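Task 17 of the worksheet. Students: predict the tertiary structure of the chain below and write it out as structure tokens. Keep your answer in the requested format; marks are given for formatting as well as content.
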Amino acid sequence: MNQILPLVSVIVIDYKKKNPYLIECLEAIEKQTYKNFEIILVCDFHVDLDYPKLRQKSYGHYVGPAEKRDAGAKMAKGEILAFIDDDAFPCEGWLAGLVPHFQKAKVAGVGGPGVTPPGVSWQEEASGWASASPVGAGPYTYRFLPGKKQYVDDYPSMNLAVRRFDFMKVGGYDSNFWPGEDTKLCLDLTHKLNKQIIYEPKAIVFHHRRPILLPHLRQNGNFGLHRGFFARILPETSLRLIYFLPSLLLLGSIFMVISSFPLVPITKNLAPITLLRSIGFYSFSLYFFVLFLNSLWVLNKSKNVFQSLLSIPVIFITHLWYGVRFLQGFLFTAKLIQ
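Model answer:
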């Protein structure tokens, strides 16, 4: 790859006829300090736009995200493909943070954090803190807030750049795996090609969240469904304890509720049931204490008491619903359907 200003193809996919965030996204891309780029917009329906570096492909009907990204990659002229969602917009140094890593031949991809934009509604902000906080995100807070530079083996395509040659070599995105086609792509890059994906904290995009509660739960439920499915069929990067914890919380909650009913008095005197209830009580006490500590973390970051308190029920409900959908994907889903 040329080390002096390689051409970057920024690929944006859009699926709404009237998307309030698309212009915000494109205008931020135009302001990049790194100037050698083109913009490829792939959408379901044609959008009247006039940007000097923009090329557009539209279908006139609904097409899945993976197919759109693959179509954008085929149109691309750049050595680097930079994928960004249409509800995200990059900081001015986004491309400048991504590109230098590709000077190393071993690097196939680079991702950066997707931070909740400032000034959004309280519902969107609450969704953002539920996703970005230590208890909400677990060890993956760096996906939502700038963390330390590191190697990763799985990264979402809302902010992911990939070497075009490597992308084509593994066949691009697999439309059979949606949602979660980015997990399959990263697995192919790191395991099939034995290449590296780097997390670059300076390559920031501002990513709008689904507002609480139903849109937020719907999205996180989809994440749980695909992760459960992948834990079964792609265990290399998905069969990890952290992904099972919400389901354990769900099953524990069901057990505690059922065993508390007076309809089953005989079970209350059984030693194993009593022991399990004791374990459950202390486990839930610890969980909610950690949620409280997490709310203090949110308070420190947000300087907002309301958001801090709201994070407790939002994260708890999110964990339960993620757990439901994870089990559905892990045990009962034969194929992910777009």
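Marker's comment: The chain has a mean pLDDT of 91. The CA atoms of residues 230 and 238 lie 6 Å apart.
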